[in-house]
Amino acid sequence: MSAHDHVEGQLPHEPEKATLEARNKILGFWLFLGAEVVLFGTLFAAFLALRHNIGDGPSAGELFQLPMVFAATMILLTSSLTSVFAVQALHQHKKKAMIGWLIVTIVLGLGFLGLEIYEFVEYVHEGHGFTTSAFSSSFYTLVGFHGAHVAFGVLWIGLIIGQIFKKGLTVVTAPKVYISAMYWHFIDVVWVFIFTVVYLMGKVAG
């Protein structure tokens, strides 16, 4: 039986791992995440090396608004939970519930991006532009790069939802849901490090 012969209601418990191709895709994605870890690690190292070089701009302690950043963190962590619910619905072959949780994940991701854009605008108004100092350049590069990953994840999950509406929940579409959830968890974990290293340490040191 080919992958395309599987229909909803005849799926295995873990349809995302039902075919060799799907398992290879998951393995390949783990390797991709390993490369992403190295990339983000480089950006973190650059930020830590430059965070005290504020030039004429404001320091981290003067700049950061922890209540807003904490709210954004809670939103993103909640979206990680909703993506878990989506994968659980996938294993239960509940397509409508899965799509519902994926949509909630997208909405929360957009809420996080909205707060981040608002935060950046506020910082620019306070004299913290991209070229203000080495600190500001490293800050916007690291946090902005993560924000770009969130935006990509929102778009990706949206496209996957469209495919499921069109093709149904099969062993072809199921791995896409699972891999997108892996990606979403990864960017959530990266944000926890950003919140700790950039914001909390910056506020304490500032």
TrEMBL record:
Source organism, top-level taxon: Bacteria
Span of domain Heme-copper oxidase subunit III family profile: 27-203
The name this protein goes by in its record: Cytochrome (Ubi)quinol oxidase subunit III
Membrane topology: Multi-pass membrane protein
Native species: Cohnella boryungensis
Transmembrane listed as a keyword: yes
Pfam hit, one: COX3
Location in or out of the cell: Cell membrane
Statement: the UniProt record of this protein carries the keyword Magnesium: no
Keywords, ordered alphabetically: Cell membrane, Membrane, Transmembrane, Transmembrane helix
